[in-house]
Amino acid sequence: MRQRTAGVVGVAxxxxxxxxxxxxxxxxxxxxxxxxxxxxxxxxxxLFAEPGTSPNEAGVPDGEWRSCDLGTETQFVTLLxxxxxxxxxxxxxxxxxxxxxxxxxxxxxxxxxxxxxxCVTFVERSFGAFAVSTADRLADDAVxxxxxxxxxxxxxxRALSDRIPS
Length: 166
Hints:
The protein is of the alpha+beta class. It has four helices and nine strands; from the N terminus they run αββαβββαββββα. It has helices at residues 2-15, 39-44, 86-90, 146-160, and strands at 27-28, 31-32, 48-49, 65-71, 75-82, 99-103, 106-113, 118-125, 128-136. It has a seven-stranded antiparallel beta sheet with strand order 3-4-5-9-8-7-6. The protein is globular.
């Protein structure tokens, strides 16, 4: 659990320096709450809830980020939303080697954290950005290779893209 909390804080802390149609969930003070996705949507993606630490409990400033801890059989998955603009996120020190992407006509990028066997995919949104962070459950043993971890991050991001407020 300590490693899990550090991952969420790491993703958020390093970067600190309207619903309609098929959109799931509700905005929270204009910042979308990733935990508002329906259980049906999450289960459809093979995701299940993880006991986790809210961003405020983890020391992330209130109002800057929202997160939701989920998982698969082999990976931790954290859904995040932030008020930060995608250009700020992409130029952050941790995003070295970020690969630019386009997901459902939105600017996006993905970067890898090799030391943590973690991958994060960010997508631009009107409120800032949405992200899917994935990490191997057994990073010390490197059970899941990084390419698979990054593929999972991208797959989930694409699957959720039309369900997140634009």
